[in-house]
Specification:
By secondary structure, this protein is α+β, with helices and mostly antiparallel strands. It has 3 domains: 63 residues, OB fold (Dihydrolipoamide Acetyltransferase, E2P) (Beta Barrel); 109 residues, no CATH class; 68 residues, no CATH class. Helix content is 27%, strand content 29%. It is built from 8 helices and 18 strands. Helix 4 packs parallel to helix 5. The longest helix is centred in the middle third of the chain and has 18 residues. The mean pLDDT is 92.
C-alpha cells in the first residue's frame, strides 16, 4: 500500500504467480509466426508464454533465455498467456522480484506490516477490497462502476448531477481509483454524453491535469462521452482478480482476518464450501506459524463467498 496522510492512495497485490514480471527464464521456442518476430515458447515447467521481438534468425526448437514482461492473466472462459522477450546479452536465469523487493528498489521508504498490527484495518483495507469485489466506487454526487472485461477495463460514470458537472466531479475519483485498484492496460471510461464541445474540452483538460504523473496515453472525449486510456499492463488489476476469483479472494480475506485475531484459543474459520480448495495445507501451515495456534476449518453453504466467519474458540 502507498499511504499518504493515513489514506491508501495506491495498492498492489502479489498473487504468488510462478511466472512473474522481471524473471529471466530458460525456454524452448515452440512456434514462430512466418515473417514476424513473434511466437510462443515453453518454459522448463511446461508453461507456455508469448514471445515478442524475436531475432529474425530464431528457429522453432531453439533454446533461448527470456525476460518475462507480463504474468499470465486468467479471465472468464479464457486466459492470456504470460508475455516475454529475449533476455538482454549477459543475463542469467533468476526469479522475478518479490513485491517487497520491487518496491524497495524505488525511492520511497518501505516497511512490512502484518494483519495483527492493525494497520490494514485502520487504513481502510476492507473498504478497498469491497470496491474491488463490487466494482462500485462512490464519490460526492455520483459513482464509478469498474468492470474488467477481456478487451479492457470499463469504468462507467453515473450520478444525479447535471452531465457536465457529473463528469468533472468524477475525474478525481477516477484517477484515484486507477491507482488504488492497480488498473492498467486498456481502460475505457464512459462519461455522460456532452453535446457541447466546450464542455467536452473542459473534461479533457481536467483529466489531463489529474493524469499528469500517470504513465500512458489518452484519447480526447468523443461525442458520446467515451475516453480511452492505454497504459502498460504487467499484471491483472486488483478489481480483475477479486471479481474473477471470488473463492480465492474470500479465502485470502479469511486468512488475513484470522491472523489479526488477538483473543486466545483455537482459530475457527467458517466459510462457504467453495472456498475449501483455496485453504491449501501450505497456507494453513503458514497461518499456524504466524499465529502460533491451531486452525480449524468448517463449511457452511449459507455463508457468502466473500464473508467468511473467523473467531477464536476459548479453551
Amino acid at each position: 500500500m502507498l499511504v499518504d496522510q493515513e489514506q491508501i492512495v495506491a495498492a498492489r497485490i502479489d498473487w504468488g504467480d510462478p511466472v512473474r514480471s522481471g524473471a529471466i527464464m530458460g525456454a524452448k521456442l515452440t512456434s514462430k509466426t512466418a515473417g514476424k518476430r513473434r511466437g510462443t515458447a515453453r518454459l522448463a515447467d511446461g508453461t507456455q508464454v508469448l514471445v515478442d521481438s524475436l531475432p529474425r534468425e530464431a528457429t522453432e526448437g531453439q533454446s533461448l533465455l527470456l525476460a518475462i514482461t507480463r504474468c499470465a492473466i486468467a479471465e472468464r472462459g479464457r486466459g492470456k498467456l504470460a508475455q516475454a522477450r529475449p533476455a538482454p546479452p549477459g543475463a542469467t536465469e533468476r526469479a522475478g522480484p518479490s513485491l517487497f523487493d520491487a518496491l524497495s528498489a524505488g525511492s520511497l521508504p518501505v516497511r512490512r506490516v502484518r494483519p495483527a498490527d492493525g494497520s490494514l484495518d485502520r487504513l481502510g483495507w476492507d473498504e478497498l477490497v469491497e470496491q474491488a469485489v463490487s466494482g462500485h466506487v462512490g464519490f460526492t454526487g455520483g459513482s464509478l462502476d469498474v468492470s474488467p472485461t477481456p478487451a479492457m477495463t470499463v469504468i462507467d460514470v453515473d450520478g444525479m448531477l447535471p452531465p457536465a458537472q457529473l463528469a468533472l466531479a468524477a475525474v478525481p475519483a477516477l484517477v484515484a481509483t486507477l491507482a488504488r485498484l492497480d488498473i492498467g492496460g486498456n481502460i475505457g471510461i464512459d462519461f455522460p454524453t456532452l453535446e457541447e464541445k466546450a464542455k467536452r474540452h473542459a473534461v479533457d483538460a481536467a483529466l489531463a491535469a489529474a493524469l499528469r504523473h500517470w504513465q500512458g496515453e489518452r484519447t480526447a472525449m468523443n461525442g458520446f462521452g467515451f475516453v480511452q486510456l492505454v497504459a502498460r499492463l504487467e499484471r491483472p488489476s486488483i478489481a480483475a482478480h477479486y471479481q474473477r476469483h471470488p473463492a480465492r479472494a474470500g479465502a485470502q480475506t479469511a486468512l488475513r482476518r484470522a491472523e489479526a485475531i488477538a483473543a486466545p484459543g483455537t482459530i475457527l474459520i467458517t466459510a462457504n464450501p467453495a472456498l475449501r480448495g483455496e485453504f491449501s495445507s501450505e497456507k494453513i501451515a503458514e497461518l499456524t506459524r504466524r499465529t502460533g495456534r491451531q486452525i480449524c476449518l468448517e463449511s457452511d453453504p449459507a455463508i457468502a463467498l466473500g464473508a467468511p466467519s473467523v473467531q477464536a474458540l476459548t479453551p
